[in-house]
Write a structure and sequence with these properties.
Largest sheet: 4 strands, mixed
Shape: elongated
Strand content: 5-15%
Number of strands: 4
Number of domains: 2
Structural class: alpha/beta
Distance between the termini: 39 Å
Length: about 170
């Protein structure tokens, strides 16, 4: 499932099932089940359609996420560029906005800028400098055990303090 490009829609399945069950219960309230069912379904479609149209939500518009990733990578690149080659650069990890991580993922399941960096630079090195992200939330640091590749750039604050920013 993880390889599927639209697996994030699976999170809405419980809501869809609940809506269908609600419509079914409305049809049981009347002796004229066929007409009530058609009316309930029509009302649900109209209300859902109006809600979607007014929300401004666009399905599969990944522009905001791409722009965010480009901005974050530019920020990381700028912070790394001012350090001497061969050093370790420590940056604060930040929570990803919903536009970049989706509705169903949390900081503990996609650990912020560190995860984005790990996806873009799997080696953990950018321009000859090791990049590590300081994470203060212990539950997010546990991510390293669950997904070593995405959690690899995460370090606790005391590791950055011992080595010092920009030192190898």
């Amino acid at each position: 499932m993880a390889a599927e490009p639209h697996v994030h829609y699976a999170g809405t399945l419980p809501i869809d099932v609940l809506l269908c069950l609600m419509i079914e219960q409305v049809t049981r309230l009347s002796h004229r089940a066929a007409s009530v069912r058609a009316l309930a379904l029509g009302a649900a479609i109209i209300i859902g359609g109006l809600g979607f149209a007014r929300s401004g939500f666009v399905i599969d518009d990944h522009r905001a996420a791409r722009d965010y990733v480009a901005t974050i990578m530019a920020e990381i690149g700028g912070a790394v560029a001012v350090r001497p080659p061969g050093t370790t650069v420590y940056l604060d990890n930040e929570v990803l906005p919903v536009s970049a991580r989706g509705l169903m993922l949390t900081q503990a399941t996609l650990p912020g800028r560190a995860a984005l960096f790990a996806l873009v630079a799997p080696s953990g090195v950018l321009d000859g400098r090791r990049v590590r992200f300081i994470e203060r939330d212990p539950t997010v640091l546990l991510y390293q055990d669950r997904a070593p590749r995405l959690g690899a750039p995460l370090v606790p604050p005391w590791e950055a303090t011992l080595s010092g920013p920009g030192r190898p």
